[in-house]
Structures are given as structure tokens and as C-alpha cells.
């Protein structure tokens, strides 16, 4: 099957459909993101970009089409011409390829920053505690929060919480990082510190899929930009050229609203 | 300088006349209320403590009577066992109610419905007389052969009947409390756990339940205190609990009021202890709530202990 020709791609979607009841949110999305690249998904609200991200990480299950992450078919397996859904255990294992950063941070409120980062390595990957502790301290240092390791999320600013969330996702050493509007819930003066961490991550060669309204970030950091509207990818291409010179009318209208 | 003076406060205010020195508002009503409370307390004191018919000497004599203490032990044992059954089973039923399997969900709903809609006293009697409906209980294949068979009337002693009656009923209420707690945790917390590759069970145990505890503990404290007193119902199946012991003694010496006072004193004492335990547990689970850190939790508990524990 097509497994072979998806080997070089971090994420690949073929005609992916997602319905919530009668509402079709994704209507045949085709998307390819190559390893080590940064892809920004932009588009008006309700265009399906967050749903797309959640499908990649199987927080939503797709109804039609195929989705590969790291060359591996996601959510189902094919055997003798039939598709079988994967049991929760295998879904959980597939999720380890992706780290996810949410719009509302979703830090575990009853744990300190350090405990948030350590929880999954110790609990899921069974990394020895001392090792996980060193790793977590190191990651918190990398996002500039070494001093705040013992604080609870409620004691941190939005920007700091989001940086802890990034460290928490990185602690599982994912192949791909998914960002779902990571700066949308932040006060304007806190956006910069989160984008800074993301820039550093991109410079490190991490594969990233970023749903965002930060066009500046897309222009400076992204390799490709994918414009979505009404459940399909309307236009995509190299970040600079697409943003400077959109071809499609809907892309033009959307970008003109942002300026 | 002259311009500054023109902006200075009105000259009618003499120095030293600041709001902090202003004469406070008088509250004559508060004084009247305080006098009323004082007079009523004195009357109550006179009617009880100074009342020779309360027979305080007998109260003192029976406070640590072996029969009373045995009854107290039974009351505590029933409370602990019934609450243990209630909490464990209640949590299971709560999780079942949120299951994706409609049959499991319905079963949990039926359980809550059934046990909440019958009087507890009926349930107690029902378990006590279970042998009449099912003379034997056995372990084996359903509708198939049984490997071990028990005589129900021997298996279901008074204590088992009491623990089953109290515990199974408590579970129905606890299930709703736990469910409310789980619902209070935002969906984002489940998703964040799943996105990190945790199994649903792990998300529940490590992420959701610890946060739900903040909502769960106060009503559970309530039900524990309520349970302590509800155990007095076991007198219908002739279990020698605290109240039954007091009754047994006053049926012989006819000192009803002093012995009821003894029972009351013990109930009040245990409830006081339980309240303090509840406060401590609540502080433990409030870690991470706006502004509460673990060190501050510890410090607060310490100050509470030093200042006598309660205000």
C-alpha cells in the first residue's frame, strides 16, 4: 500500500473527512508535512484547523480518508482488505509520536510545574524518577522557567503556563509537535515569550504543525503555510510567497482582514 | 509656591482631623442582641448544668461504662465499614455511570435509583431477613453448579446486615457526589492526559480524581458525620451500638435523661474529631488552588494545631 511512499513524511492526510453529527468540519483534507519542517495552518474560525490538529493526535476520530503520522497509519489497521480500529492501548502508543500544546494550556492544576513535566515520563514511559527529574529540570530551564519549577499553574502567568505546557510535551520526546492556537488565550505582552520558545524549537529542527493567527510568526518561522476554509485546504505553499502573494481570492480576503 | 497653596485642601479642616480619627457609627442593635444572647445562655445553663434532675453524677458514672464503650466501638466499627463500602462502591458506580457502554451506564443508574428510593430502615430489615428469600448463597457458575454453598442466616450476621444496609445505600449517594466531582474537572484535563499517551484509567487515577477530590471531600465529610448518627438505626436489627447500649442501661435503672446525655456526649465528641479530620483532608487536596501551595497548606495546619485547632 501507500505506506512506503509516506515514509519520508511526518504527517500525511488523504481525503480526510470529519463530521460532528450533521456538521461536516473536514471535507476531504489532503495535507503533507515533511520531516523537520514547520507548517502553519491558518484560516478563519470554524474552518476546521483545530479539528485537523486534534485528528492528527486522535483526540478526534476521522470518518473517511487516511491519516499517517511518521509513516504509520493512524487509528486503524488494514488486514485482508478490511479496516480495524485500534484498541485504546495502541492509540495511546501512537500518540507518543506527537506532543500537543493546547490553546488553554491544560496544565494539571494539582501539580507543580515540575510535576506536570515529570508525570508522563514516569507514569507512561516508566523512566526512573531521578532521570525524569533531571530531564524535567533541564526542559524547564530550556523554556526559561528553572526558577518556577515548584510553582503551581495558578501561580504562573499565561505565558509561563504555556511554556510549562511545551516542556511537558517535549518531555515525552515526540517526533512532531502540534500547537493549537498556543498564543490565542494570552495577554498581548505575553505572546512574545511563547513564540520565542517555539522559534528555538523550530531552529532545533523539530517538526511542527502550528494552528495560529500569528502571521508574523508564520512568515518568519514556517516553511509552509496552509490556508483552510470551510473544511478544506484552499491554498498552500512556501510561507513567504503565499503570505506575500496569495493566489486564491479567499486567502486574499482572509489575509487582508488580518492587516 | 503661591499656586500650590491655591490647590491645598479647604482651610476649614484643622490639622489632625483625618477620617481615621472620625467617630464610628454606633450600633445599639448589636448591644441589644448581645444582651439577649447572654440572658438566654444563662437560662440554658440554669436549666441544664444547674438542674439537679439532669443527674450529672449518673452521667459521669456511665460515661466510661464498659457497656457504653462497647456500644461506642460498635458504632465506630459500623461507621468505618459502611463508609468504606460506600466510598469504594460509590466510586465504581460513578465511573460506571459515565461509561460509554449503555448497559453499564443503565445498571449504575438503576442502582442509584433503587437505593435512593427506599427507606434505609427498610433496607436494613431486608438484609437482616434475607434468609427468608434466599435460604442459601453459593459460589459457582451462574445458573450452573455451585462449588460452595452457605446458609444465608449464618452468613448474614447482624453486623453484615448492618454494613450491607448502610454501605450499599451510602454508595448510591456517594456515586452522585463522585460523579459531580468528576464533572467538575474540565475536559481539557482529560485531553491533556490522553495527549501525553496516558491510558484512560491512568488519566482518571492521576489527573481527574485528585482534582475532583476538592469537590468530593466536603459532602463526603457531611455523609460520614451523618453516617455516624444513622448507625443508631441498627437498633431495629438489635445490634448493640452506642444508643442501644444506653437504652439497655436505662431500661433497668430508669435514668433515661442521664444515659441519653452520655450517648449525646459521645456523638458530639466523635463528630468534633471527624470535623477536624475533614478540615485536614480538605487542606491536603486544595494544593494548586489559586494561591495555595503545599508549604502554605502545611503552615496553616500547623498554626491551627498550635492555636488549639479551632476558632
- What average pLDDT do the residues of chain A reach? 93
* Radius of gyration of chain A using CA atoms only: 18 Å
The helix content of chain B, as a percent range, equals over 70%
**How many beta-strand runs of chain A?**
12
User: How would you sum up the major sheet of chain B?
Assistant: 2 strands, antiparallel
Shape of chain B: flat
Beta content of chain B: under 5%
The count of DSSP E runs of length 2 or more, i.e. the number of strands of chain B, is 2
Provide structural commentary.
The complex is a heterodimer of chains A (259) and B (311). Chain A is of the alpha/beta class and 259 residues long. Chain A has helices spanning 49-56, 88-95, 113-123, 129-142, 158-170, 188-203, 215-221, 239-244, 249-258; strands at residues 9-20, 23-34, 38-42, 64-69, 72-73, 76-79, 82-85, 98-101, 176-180, 207-211, 224-229, 232-238. Chain A starts with 8 loop residues before the first strand and ends with a helix. The mean pLDDT of chain A is 93. Chain B has helices spanning 2-7, 28-48, 56-63, 66-97, 102-116, 120-128, 130-133, 152-155, 158-184, 187-195, 200-230, 242-253, 256-285, 294-306; strands at 136-140, 146-151. In chain B, helix 4 (66-97) runs antiparallel to helix 5 (102-116) and helix 10 crosses helix 11 (200-230). Chain B is flat. Chain B starts with a helix and ends in a 5-residue tail after the last helix. At the A-B interface, helix 2, strand 8, helix 3 and helix 5 of A face helix 10 and helix 11 of B.
Amino acid at each position: 500500500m501507500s505506506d512506503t511512499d509516506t515514509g519520508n513524511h511526518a504527517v500525511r492526510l488523504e481525503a480526510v473527512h470529519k463530521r460532528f453529527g450533521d456538521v461536516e468540519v473536514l471535507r476531504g483534507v489532503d495535507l503533507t508535512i515533511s520531516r523537520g519542517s514547520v507548517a502553519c495552518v491558518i484560516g478563519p474560525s470554524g474552518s476546521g484547523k483545530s479539528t485537523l490538529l486534534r485528528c492528527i493526535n486522535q483526540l478526534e476520530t476521522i470518518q473517511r480518508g487516511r491519516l499517517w503520522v511518521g509513516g504509520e497509519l493512524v487509528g486503524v489497521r488494514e488486514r485482508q482488505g478490511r479496516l480495524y480500529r485500534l484498541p485504546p492501548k495502541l492509540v495511546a502508543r501512537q500518540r507518543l509520536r506527537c506532543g500537543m500544546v493546547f490553546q488553554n494550556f491544560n496544565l494539571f492544576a494539582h501539580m507543580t510545574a515540575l510535576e506536570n513535566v515529570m508525570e508522563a515520563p514516569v507514569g507512561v514511559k516508566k523512566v526512573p524518577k531521578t532521570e525524569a527529574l533531571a530531564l524535567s529540570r533541564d526542559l524547564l530551564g530550556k523554556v526559561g522557567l528553572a526558577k518556577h519549577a515548584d510553582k503551581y499553574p495558578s501561580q504562573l502567568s499565561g505565558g509561563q503556563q504555556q511554556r510549562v505546557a511545551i516542556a511537558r510535551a517535549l518531555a515525552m520526546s515526540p517526533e512532531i509537535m502540534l500547537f493549537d492556537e498556543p498564543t490565542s488565550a494570552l495577554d498581548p505582552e505575553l505572546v512574545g515569550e511563547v513564540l520565542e520558545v517555539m522559534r528555538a524549537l523550530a531552529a532545533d529542527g523539530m517538526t511542527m504543525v502550528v494552528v495560529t493567527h500569528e502571521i508574523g510568526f508564520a512568515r518568519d518561522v514556517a516553511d509552509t503555510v496552509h490556508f483552510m476554509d470551510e473544511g478544506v485546504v484552499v491554498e498552500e505553499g512556501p510561507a513567504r510567497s503565499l503570505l506575500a502573494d496569495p493566489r486564491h481570492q479567499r486567502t486574499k480576503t482572509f489575509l487582508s482582514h488580518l492587516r | 509656591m503661591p499656586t500650590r497653596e491655591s490647590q491645598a485642601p479647604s482651610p476649614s479642616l484643622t490639622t489632625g482631623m483625618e477620617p481615621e480619627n472620625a467617630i464610628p457609627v454606633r450600633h445599639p442593635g448589636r448591644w441589644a442582641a448581645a444582651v439577649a444572647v447572654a440572658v438566654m445562655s444563662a437560662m440554658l445553663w440554669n436549666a441544664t448544668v444547674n438542674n439537679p434532675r439532669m443527674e450529672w453524677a449518673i452521667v459521669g458514672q456511665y460515661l466510661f461504662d464498659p457497656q457504653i464503650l462497647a456500644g461506642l466501638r460498635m458504632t465506630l466499627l459500623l461507621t468505618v465499614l459502611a463508609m468504606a463500602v460506600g466510598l469504594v462502591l460509590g466510586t465504581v458506580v460513578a465511573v460506571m455511570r459515565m461509561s460509554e457502554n449503555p448497559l453499564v451506564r443503565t445498571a449504575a443508574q438503576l442502582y442509584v435509583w433503587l437505593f435512593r428510593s427506599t427507606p434505609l430502615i427498610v433496607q436494613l430489615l431486608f438484609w437482616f431477613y434475607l434468609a427468608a428469600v434466599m435460604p442459601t448463597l453459593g459460589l459457582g457458575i451462574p445458573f450452573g453448579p455451585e462449588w460452595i454453598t452457605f446458609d444465608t442466616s449464618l452468613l448474614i450476621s447482624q453486623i453484615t446486615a448492618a454494613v450491607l444496609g448502610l454501605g450499599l445505600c451510602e454508595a448510591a449517594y456517594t456515586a452522585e457526589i463522585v460523579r459531580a466531582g468528576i464533572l467538575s474537572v474540565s475536559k481539557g484535563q482529560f485531553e491533556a492526559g490522553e495527549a501525553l499517551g496516558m491510558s484512560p484509567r491512568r488519566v482518571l487515577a492521576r489527573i481527574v480524581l485528585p482534582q475532583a477530590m476538592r469537590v468530593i471531600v466536603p459532602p463526603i465529610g457531611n455523609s460520614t458525620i451523618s453516617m455516624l448518627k444513622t448507625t443508631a438505626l441498627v437498633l431495629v436489627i438489635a445490634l448493640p451500638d452506642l444508643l442501644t447500649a444506653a437504652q439497655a442501661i436505662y431500661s433497668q435503672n430508669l435514668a433515661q435523661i442521664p444515659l441519653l446525655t452520655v450517648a449525646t456526649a459521645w456523638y458530639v465528641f466523635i463528630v468534633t474529631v471527624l470535623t477536624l479530620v475533614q478540615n485536614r483532608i480538605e487542606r491536603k487536596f486544595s494544593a494548586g488552588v489559586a494561591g495555595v501551595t503545599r508549604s502554605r497548606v502545611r503552615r496553616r495546619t500547623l498554626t491551627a494545631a498550635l492555636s488549639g485547632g479551632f476558632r
